[in-house]
Write a structure and sequence with these properties.
- The chain has about 260 residues and is mostly helical.
- The protein has 11 helices and no strands.
- About 35% of the residues are buried.
Amino acid sequence: MVMLPALLLSETSQSALEFTRILATIGAVFVIYEYGFPTPSVIEFRYCAPYNRIRFLLMLALTLAPAYLISVVLDGHVPNGILATIAANSFAIMDFAYSPVTIVADTLAGGDVVMRGVVGQAIALNVMISLSCVLAFCAAVFSNLWRFGGSDFNMWLNLPTYKSYDMTSLQKRLKNSAFASLLIAFLVPVFGPTLADVAIVWMSNDGVLAPLAIIWVIAIWTYLPAIYVMRAVALIKVSVQGNEKEPQIDEFIMRL
């Protein structure tokens, strides 16, 4: 996943490829370490498939979508097809004064009119992908197509930082964390222009950001709100299921 955007772009430098390989290696080592040991450490909901698979596939889509659009434009072609149509129509809706999408597109493009258009479309397409994923996730969780919590939910393996032997305090912590996740999800889009400015300062060459860096800025900015909303929904569902299983509370606590 980390390597694919660099491989799709025809103008990726050798140094950028080497740096991407290093990041991909670090990511691979982390995932192998996390899932190679039975005791949990960082990744939440390890045994609540397919939660982490959905997050991975979402990140994959949010990196490949802008990589495809930008690579087509850099090769001198015009994007076409259903993805290009959705991207163009979505950007037309989101392109208005003081829109974070517009500000970020202007900042990342660096005055290039053609790049500004494709960057704006890539952001808009990612927003639609993230929104669709979040809505589908919420529908699946709250319609009980995918169960979180309950007496068979192992808190230690899935939420090790929330281990508690007091059900009331546990539910309160879960709800507070869900609220904090929602707050972060709503604040991240607002700080998109700041993220773009930081990327220009740290990663640009004479104020011009490389296409690979643009792709990752877009992907990260549109990915964070989605995963925090999904995390909040999952935590709320675990808390609600805990209340519904009140008659089996002793069994639930024994599994913590």
